[in-house]
Specification:
It is a single chain. The protein contains two helices and five strands, in the order ααβββββ. The chain is of the alpha+beta class and 112 residues long. The protein has a five-stranded antiparallel sheet, with helices on one face. The longest helix has 39 residues. The model has no long low-confidence stretch (mean pLDDT 85).
Length: 112
Amino acid sequence: MFISPAYAQDAGGGTGAVVMQLLPLILIFAVFYFLLIRPQQKKMKEHRAMLGGLKRNDKIITGGGLVGTVTKVRDDSDEVEVELAPNVRVTVLRGTIGSVVKPPAPANDVKA
């Protein structure tokens, strides 16, 4: 009795309005996925592969900024022995290793 005719007419088409209301949320989620979530997962996958491929004599940088050389890799545990200086060896967890330093490529000695 007190409902206006405009509200009564709009009640029939509810599914289209719901989709239009959810569309911005779906678009925002898609943008977040492709710009934030997916690259982070890719980076984590590469980091895990790097940690799994550690071998003796690899030069590493730990999360705390220490630079050392891997002396012993224990496959059965999550620990790696690293030599920080001559006769200074420490055991670090694999998860604290930030990166593996690649040796510089030898420059071609071309004489002109």
